[in-house]
Amino acid sequence: MTMIDVNALHLAFGAVNVLNNVNLQVRQGQSFGLVGESGSGKTTVLRCLAGQYTHWEGNL
Ligand SMILES: Nc1ncnc2c1ncn2[C@@H]1O[C@H](COP(=O)(O)OP(=O)(O)O)[C@@H](O)[C@H]1O
Ligand SMILES: [Mg+2]
């Protein structure tokens, strides 16, 4: 079963596109490592999933 399903996630802060077509799936029992340089958007993806941001586009 897919527990986390992120499809075509986009988010901008003003004119700055921070997330551009983020896609990831995590199935039940799986772990997922989200790796990237500082400022690449890792925390922003999780904040979208947690409901802290609501101005994203795509499917969660
Ligand atoms: N609330 C916010 N308002 C404006 N810009 C933001 C906000 N949160 C994050 N950003 C910007 O979005 C980008 C991604 O940040 P972030 O998701 O924190 O990266 P990471 O967690 O990968 O270090 C950075 O350029 C950051 O400055
Ligand atoms: Mg972070």
Question: What does this molecule look like?
Answer:
The chain is 15% helix and 45% strand. It contains 1 helix and 3 strands; from the N terminus they run ββαβ. A 3-stranded antiparallel β-sheet has the order 2-1-3, with helices on one face. With 60 residues, it is an alpha+beta fold. It starts with a strand and ends with a strand. The chain has one domain (2-28, 36-59). 10% of the residues are buried. The protein binds adenosine-5'-diphosphate and magnesium ion.
Provide the β-strand percentage band.
Answer: over 45%
Q: Helix share of residues? A: 10-25%
| Number of E-type strands | 3
Spatial gap, N to C terminus: 15 Å
- Parts with pLDDT < 50 across at least 5 consecutive residues: none
* Overall pLDDT metric: 98
Q: Report the structural category.
A: alpha+beta
Walk me through the topology.
Elements: E1 2-13, E2 16-27, H1 42-50, E3 57-59
Antiparallel strand pairs: 1-2, 1-3
Bound molecules: adenosine-5'-diphosphate and magnesium ion (MG).
The site of adenosine-5'-diphosphate has 10 residues, from helix 1.
